[in-house]
Amino acid sequence: MFQYEKKLQFPVNIKNPNPAYAKIIISQYGGPDGELAASLRYLSQRFTMPRGDLIGLLTDVGVEELGHLEMIGAIVYQLTKNLSQEQIKKQGFDAYFVDHTTGVYPSSAAGVPFTAAYLQSKGDVLTDLHEDMAAEQKARTTYDNILRLVDDPDVREPIKFLREREIVHYQRFGEALRIATDNMNEKNFYAFNPSFDKCSAAKKQMGC
Amino acid sequence: MKNECRQMQDNCKNEVAKTPFPENYALAMAYVPYQSFNETYDAEKAFCQGTLFPCLDKPFVGC
Question: Which label site among A108, A144, B7, B37 has the fewest CB atoms less than 10 Å from its CB?
């Protein structure tokens, strides 16, 4: 279960609305490498991790990603507050506005609605951890690109914070992979799947 | 059955890596060096940077 803290992980206080920025940043809400996909990925994959420490790591990171989803939602919301019809049209926000007004809807910058097809839960510790490391890099690149496109420091600061968290998470998932492989036989990491195959074999492979 | 399996695996000796890379590494596997605990930022700086560790603090400088 979760406990909710009524504050953001990093403060978001945007003085100047800018629907053009909102249009691109929404991609980290419901886009292919966004925070919703990240949190669902880790919080789904965690169940079949073969060790308690790996389950714990995926839970921790998955919950933090929910906090990041909340930050991105706050950024998009504040960027679209008190808009005039003129601003909506001029800054290209009309295509989003017609379907969602200024509601925060999980979609990519190109308007594609969120889909679970953005993520995988493969039930194999090595496969899932490799996906997680790739996911952190893809999110980091997306934040790099947002930083290329956004000048306002009120927006850049929380985005820089989120980008740095991707790098830290990449390191943690790398260490998770190390924990997994250190407890497997390096002669053949792919001999079987410790998340699925029989207990006795898995037990031996995990170093017991 | 499943809980039993997890229980047994949790009881495995929890090997803590002492070196950045493993002694016996294999082809067809990815390795990220293990982080060792050393220098840290003070709390306020860590909060702003998004990490406690200078060695993980890698800002974007492109434009």
Answer: B37
Give A14's contacts (C-beta < 8 A, 6+ positions apart): A75, A78, A79, A152, A154, A155
The backbone torsions φ and ψ at residue A165, rounded to the nearest 5 degrees and listed phi first, read -65, -35
Alpha-carbon distances of A178 from B10, B12, B29, B35, B55, rounded to whole Å: 16, 15, 10, 11, 19
* pLDDT single digits (tens) A130-155: 999 999 999 999 999 999 999 999 99
Contacts of B60 in chain A (CB under 8 A): 143-144, 147, 160, 163
Task: Give the ipTM of the model, two decimals please.
Answer: 0.90
As beta bridge partners, residue A113 has A107
Cβ-defined contact of B17 to A178 (cutoff 8 Å): yes
- The CATH class of A19-205 is mainly alpha
Residues 3 through 62 of chain B touching chain A, CB cutoff 8 Å: 4-6, 8-15, 17, 22, 24-26, 28-35, 47-51, 56-60, 62
Residues whose CB falls within 8 Å of the CB of residue A110, separated by 6 or more in sequence, listed in order = A27
